[in-house]
Amino acid sequence: MFGKNHFMPVLAVLFFVLVVSINFSFAEGPPPAVVELANSKLAEIGRDPLIVAAVKAQNAKGQTLDQIKARDKEWIASQTLQPYMREMINSPTGKHLSNIFYSTQYFMEIFVMDNQGANVAMTSRTSDYWQGDESKFKKAYNGGKGGIFIDEVEFDLSCMAFLIQVSVPVMDGNKAIGAITFGIDSDRI
């Protein structure tokens, strides 16, 4: 029915229709299941003692924003998994995140940030080290007040899936000390 020359345009049109329909449906707000998940299970993970301890330890190091931005440039420029990246994945907190990650079918990534938006621990390499200039951090950390941020559905090439990033604060008592982001496969929730 279709020759080789016709197959790619058909795929492109189908992909476009899928993206438009997902973005249109999300324009009405995030799916109720994601909102409920964010306000319950994910918010509770943001209070996990192991995660809180790791963020407190990272915050105590007192990195300057210039040091964080220098690491961010190095991170982005690196084509391979560097030892300091592997350390964030294989740390006790990174392994704990992996256990959370594998406890469901819908998590595609999880990463924890300190009070400046620098990575503390992760399940896999993120595209950059510093999230402090992004809404996922700014709205979840919210100047130490905490908040929940549910981003729009986007296609993630590294996961080859449509993801919703949900960010919640890492809470030490009533104070946000960092944030945690969950990449959720919108087709699996």
What does this structure look like?
Helix content is 46%, strand content 21%. The protein contains 7 helices and 6 strands. It is α+β, with helices and mostly antiparallel strands and 189 residues long. Mean pLDDT is 87; it is low at 7-14 and 16-26. It has 2 domains: 1-29; 31-185, Beta-Lactamase, CATH 3.30.450. It is globular. Strands 1, 2, 3, 4, 5 and 6 form a 6-stranded antiparallel beta sheet that branches. It has helices at residues 4-26, 32-45, 49-60, 65-77, 83-90, 92-101, 135-141; strands spanning 107-113, 119-122, 149-150, 154-156, 161-172, 175-185.
Biggest β-sheet, characterized? 6 strands, antiparallel
SSE ordering? HHHHHHEEHEEEE
CATH class call of the largest domain: Alpha Beta
Low-confidence stretches: 7-14, 16-26
CATH superfamily of the largest domain: PAS domain
What percentage of amino acids are in beta strands? 15-25%
Tally of DSSP β-strands: 6
Q: Do you know the CATH topology of the largest domain? A: Beta-Lactamase
Based on the coordinates given, report the CATH architecture of the largest domain: 2-Layer Sandwich
- Mean pLDDT across all amino acids: 87
